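Rotation project, supervised by the postdoc (A.L.). Task for the rotation student: set up a whole-complex structure prediction and record inputs and outputs verbatim in this book. Inputs entered:
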Amino acid sequence: MKNYLFGLLAFALFATVLTSCSKDGDDTTTDLTGTGSVTLEFDHRAGDASLVFGANYRTANGDTVKFSTFNYFVSNFVFVKSDGTEYTVPKDECYFLVKHDDAESREVTISGIPAGDYNEVKFIIGVDSAKSVSPVDQRKGVLDPAAGASGMYWAWNSGYIFVKVEGTSPQAPLNSSTGERTIEYHTGLFGGMTSKTLNNIKEVELHSHDEAAKVRKDTKPHFHIYVDILEMFTSPTNIDVFDNPTSHAGPYSEIVANNYADMFILDHIHN
Amino acid sequence: MNTFNKIFCLLFAVLLFASCKKDDPVVVPEDVKFTVPSNFPAPTYSFSSNEITQSGFELGRRLFYDPIFSRDSSISCGDCHISYSAFSHVDHITSHGINGLLGKRNAPAVQNMAWRTSFFWDGGVPLLDLVPLNAIQNPVEMDEVPANVVRKLNRSSVYPAMFKKAFPGLDTISGADMLKALSQFMNMLVSANSRYDHYVRGESGGTLSADELAGLALFKAKCSTCHATDLFTDQSFRNNGILSDFTLDKCRYEVSTFPDDIGKFAVPSLRNVERTPPYMHNGKFKTLEAVLNHYTSGVKDTPSLDPLLKQNGQLGIPLTDIEKQQIIAFLKTLTDESFSTDPRFQHP
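Outputs recorded:
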């Protein structure tokens, strides 16, 4: 009973937080008409372990790293059925800022998905270029640049920071402004509007080879997604935190983005 | 008249007096109509999402001159963008921001913003609405957090009512509306009434002297590829040979990350150029003579140098002393006195 109440409370809270993306379906039919919703859980990992801020991890390069910030945008969701038909979530409904230190943000619900069996989800890491240059009043909440977009925005090189990783490493050089052996990787750049820039938007496709997400009016399948922060430090290029302790809107950001492009892994789907 | 009405009238009179300087004419709605000068191309700004209104413009004007944007309320937009110099910072190589800290590049003119395809010397900002965020957040300019400015505006005794009037239907001031109001003011800063404009549109007062006409012909032949159209810029990024080493400021490269962009800066408009010394991103030249001397004999050869400045293996643009004087005479016909002194654009 207690659990049930807690669950109800959690759900109510969730529905409030994600009003832009949730429509509750209390219908109990199981036919393939109507729409349903799915939950995506972003389970942050550091290699084989769960990510804990302040704990030591070892990168592929052999550096010891400790994290204090891990934020990223995911957006432009597409769900694919086993027969290849796709459902593109209306873009404006689903821009999510996931922050490791905000547990609620690590679980997102997307509703309005036509009933069906989906075994693939596609999305981008970051914010698409159209949104990056859209009028300011069309960017609400986490996207509002005038509200600082939660520290995920560059005003001098207009655009969102797609992935923000900060921490320290004894192998990193002493940073004169922080007085610490800081590591700091802020990656953005959407390709520019009238004049071209580097484009670090990365597409992710997560495919399930066994269970499909059975989206129905009365079900809420769950995509359990691992996000391994250490993947940002390797494949295709090992990052040496002594040589490259920081990266912002420079050419090195391309290497960082290519590394983190494969940090999302679909662990399983459960219905 | 009851006491309430009397107090109200008195209050109104005080407010009116307080908000208007003696020589400040009452602004009527027609005054804030945005029109495209017939010699200009189509504007790039999306007016459909932010139409200029009287109250929005008035609000933007007040914001433009309000130091509320800086962390310690010491610097307003208008401090470094002064109407006399086409809203640039005349006689300042770079501008001093908060605590007297100096900026990295020469403050650009704020004029004909509605036609721009990108903003700042490095083109880092593609939309006018996003321009103020850069100055607000820059640690050597206003060093403030936009969300804090919005909080300060909401706490102010005058702004909530002004915003409500300009953007009806809102209970609290939003950052987006703050930026839209500033854009309304900046979009009205159109300079298209110089003697050259009158000449090119065949209007009265559009007489150019023989030297000025000769300068115009030379300008068209030798300068107008980059300083193109009647906006006097093609809005591209080019290395004009200003430095032999760009280690300290790689400019466009810092935004795009493409090595070919090292040392490329946005081509500035030449409107009101007489009023906007010093010249170039680093304020290297104090006079127009020095600028033209640079183009004839001062161009530095680096890998990203614009090919137009190295034709047939020859650096720079060949010009005689007389030709230089004629070009300068022409450039001075781009001075728009009515723009710089327009009472609608002054400190309210």
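Student's summary: The beta strands of chain B are 237-238, 265-266, 310-311, 314-315.
Supervisor addendum: Chain B touches chain A at residues 46, 49-50, 117-118, 120, 122-127, 129-130, 133-134, 136-138, 145-147, 150, 174-180, 235, 237, 252, 254-259 (CB under 8 Å).
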